[in-house]
Amino acid sequence: MAFTPRRRFSLAASALAWCLVAQPVLAAPDTETYRQLDQLMDVFERVRAEYVEKVDDKKLLEGAIDGMLAALDPHSSFLDARDFEVMRTQTEGEYGGLGIEVTLEDGTVKVVSPIDDTPASRANIKAGDYITHINKEPIFGTTLTEAVSKMKGPPKSSITLTIVREGATKPFDVTLTREIITLRPVRHEAMGSVGYIRVAQFSKPTGPGLRKAISSLQQQIGADRLTGYVLDLRRNPGGLLDQAIEVSDAFLERGEIVSQRGRRKQDIQRYYAKPGDLTGGKPVVVLVDEASASASEIVAGALQDQRRGIVIGQRTFGKGSVQTLIPLSPDTALRLTTARYYTPAGRSVQELGIDPDIEVPQLSDPDLKDRLTLRESDLRNHLLNGSKAGEKQEERDNKPDPRFQNVTAESLKKQGITDFQLDYALKLLQRMGGPTARVATN
After folding, report:
1. Known catalytic residue: 377?
2. Residue 318, Cβ neighbours under 10 Å: how many?
3. In degrees to the nearest 10, what's the CA dihedral of 149, 154, 160, 165?
4. Active site includes 331?
5. pLDDT at 6
6. DSSP 8-state secondary structure symbol assigned to residue 220
7. Which one of the listed residues 116, 305, 419, 423 is annotated catalytic?
């Protein structure tokens, strides 16, 4: 049994060698490929026969698959039964855990973003934090799946995370209580004459939730009195492409929303808005930050390129790649990067992100200067953008903005402003048209 796969590869290599006589130039690369596959099976058989302890074949083969995909980019992966179920429940909009998006960097678990109104966000865990221990046990060197599994557990059970934060003098512990995370991807609130819509992620309920939010705000504020909308995509890690298209379409009357392009010229798909702007052309301000990723960047890029909305905040994460889910069995799948997506103006978001029309740092965050920023370009093996963007983004991000030199979190707090970016967006909309309204930001 152990020799069957190897024999298959060897026979295929022999057949290929026979073809080499007729087409030597085309077949040579495949011959080398099959030689490497033979070598892979050699290693597999040696490990099975001679490793110090008996090993599980399935574990070895899944490790080989994981290694193969890890050589590609950070977003291609093999989903075993547990991973597949986690992904399914997240896109459905409900799952158990702490409400935290994490990634793996050099063997260390790093926070991408806490999700709104979850144990993680309420415990003030922030993007860029490192999680080094779970319940006092070190997790350095574990896989991302193992770390996430340890963070999950029965609702109402407690868990202690050890956090390393840039700027903090030493690691500190945070104790959280697990709960069933029922995501509310869309929340809305009337702020004076402005309709505020918060989109936390792009799962199946997002598009319908956005339409309901727009309708509710129009009734609550009054269509004639409504000044405009703030679409808050900060800390939104993305999600489903079709939901990003649906959200963009709600604000657009016509035109392209996004295109995706694969390795071949013919692998181009374009998505367009359907007639009917649900907001009636009211002004839109889109809030983004460094944790706005993927589907969030599709929406921000579409509204920016179509001149339908003003994007403010900070440069986005820069995940401009498309992952296709390829089922391998009833409970396993391959998540493979198959394309890059482009804004209507033909910009690739990959690695560079979306630059806001007006750069506004979150000055109400007392940890802003010390907080570590994580973007796609920081991930190992990330896809390159493929174009020259002039001045390096990192240098531009680090340049101080003279407009805000004397603004501090303490001074804003005295003014009752706890969310500077949102306060800026609301005041911008008020200047664009409509009566001034007293708006509390909290």
Report:
1. no
2. 27
3. 50
4. no
5. 36
6. H
7. 305
Give the helix ranges, DSSP H, for 55-118: 57-70, 81-92
Query: How many whole angstroms separate alpha carbon 186 and alpha carbon 184?
Result: 5
Helix (H) / strand (E) containing 178: none
CATH superfamily of 94-182: PDZ domain (2.30.42.10)
Domain boundaries, the chain: 4-55, 94-182, 186-432
Contact of 200 with 238, CB cutoff 8 Å: no
Among 292, 294, 296, 364, which one carries the catalytic annotation? Answer: 294
Q: Does the active-site annotation cover 294?
A: yes
Tokens 């978001």 label which residue?
Answer: 349
Strand boundaries in 158-261, DSSP class E: 158-164, 172-177, 179-182, 186-191, 194-199, 228-232, 256-261
Check residue 90 and give its pLDDT: 60
238, 239, 240, 243: CA torsion to nearest 10: -50
218 close to 255: Cβ distance less than 8 angstroms: no
User: What is the structure's pLDDT at 1?
Assistant: 39
Of the candidates 110, 126, 282, 319, the residue annotated as catalytic is 319
CA atoms of 100 and 127, how far apart (whole Å): 10
What local confidence, expressed as pLDDT, does residue 373 receive?
77
Return the residue matching tokens 């030597």: 24
What is the residue-wise DSSP string for 363-425? TT-TTTTTPPP--GGGSTTPPP--S--SS-HHHHHHSPPGGGTT--HHHHHHTT-S-HHHHHH
CATH fold of the domain at 186-432:
2-enoyl-CoA Hydratase; Chain A, domain 1 (3.90.226)
Question: Per DSSP, which regions of 211-344 are E strands?
Answer: 228-232, 256-261, 268-272, 284-288, 310-313, 321-329, 332-342
What pLDDT is attached to residue 395?
A: 52
At residue 278, the pLDDT reads 97
What pLDDT was estimated at residue 361?
92
pLDDT along the chain (442 residues), means of 10: 37 31 48 87 92 91 87 88 70 69 82 85 89 92 81 86 89 92 86 95 93 97 94 93 97 96 87 96 96 95 97 95 88 89 94 94 83 81 71 54 80 89 94 50 36
Name the nearest CA neighbour of 297 among 376, 390, 395.
376
- Fill in the DSSP letter of residue 348: B
